[in-house]
């Protein structure tokens, strides 16, 4: 176990070595999906028929890399006010997981694809709301510009990668869910509360890059 390197070249080297070059096949992803259920070995009801989703994990290539997050609008029916990565459901018109992640980033925060270069993929993550989330890790130019969709996103902010990849900042919290107590990762940062699927994906990134 070690802390993340602070500079962009070291991160890019690890990303090239350890990220998936392609997203996992749906069948493989469903065979043993990651998710908050994994923390407590909660059995999954078979057969699994989740909806596919894609998120962009945007690594801003500053001298000390950061990750770009969104704060969801408070008027949304689901997950209002939560911290998230740009992303959403894969539409039938999307040519690929990557295309879906790019489209959602453009629609939610106005992040144009010319600022984005994909680096690879993480393992799929099964949410408690029955979405199978495919994370696309990508480098983002520090010169990026945004135009937030106020109906979906209230704010965006960056967090140093070194903070997020330090396991000392990965807290295990719990709450009641459908009659049982479930644990989940949370990473509080300067008054922001990163938890649930977003924190689970961050833990996935840490384990893939810094523990293997």
Name the structural class.
alpha+beta
Tally of strands: 12
CATH topology: Nucleoside Triphosphate Pyrophosphohydrolase
- Count the DSSP helices: 5
Give the second-level CATH assignment, the architecture: Alpha-Beta Complex
Shape: globular
Mean pLDDT: 90
Unreliable stretches (pLDDT < 50, length at least 5) are: none
Sheet with most strands: 9 strands, mixed
Q: Care to describe what's here?
A:
It is a single chain. The protein is an alpha+beta fold. It has a single domain, classed as Nucleoside Triphosphate Pyrophosphohydrolase (Alpha-Beta Complex). The protein contains five helices and twelve strands. The protein has helices at 8-18, 26-31, 97-109, 161-164, 196-210; strands spanning 34-35, 51-60, 66-72, 83-84, 87-89, 116-121, 125-126, 131-140, 153-160, 171-177, 180-189, 192-195. The strands form two sheets. Strands 1, 2, 3, 4, 5, 6, 7, 8 and 9 form a nine-stranded mixed β-sheet that branches. The chain has a three-stranded antiparallel β-sheet with strand order 10-11-12.
């Amino acid at each position: 176990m070690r802390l993340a390197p602070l500079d962009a070249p070291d991160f890019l080297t690890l990303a090239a070595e350890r990220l998936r070059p392609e997203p996992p096949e749906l069948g493989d992803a469903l065979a043993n999906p990651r998710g908050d259920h994994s923390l407590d070995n909660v059995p999954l009801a078979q057969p699994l028929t989740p909806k596919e989703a894609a998120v962009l994990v945007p690594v801003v290539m500053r001298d000390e890399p950061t990750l770009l997050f969104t704060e969801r609008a408070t008027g949304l029916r689901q997950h209002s006010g939560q911290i998230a990565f740009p992303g959403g459901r894969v539409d039938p018109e999307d040519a690929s997981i990557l295309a879906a992640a790019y489209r959602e980033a453009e629609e939610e925060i106005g992040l144009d694809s010319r600022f984005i270069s994909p680096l690879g993929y993480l393992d799929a993550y099964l949410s408690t709301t029955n979405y199978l989330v495919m994370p696309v890790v990508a480098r983002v130019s520090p010169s990026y510009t945004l135009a937030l969709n106020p109906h979906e996103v209230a704010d965006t902010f960056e967090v140093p990668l070194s903070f997020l990849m330090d396991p000392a900042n990965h807290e295990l919290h719990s709450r009641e869910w459908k009659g049982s107590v479930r644990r989940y990762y949370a990473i509080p940062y300067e008054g922001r509360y990163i938890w649930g699927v977003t924190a689970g994906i961050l833990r996935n990134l840490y384990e893939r890059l810094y523990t293997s």
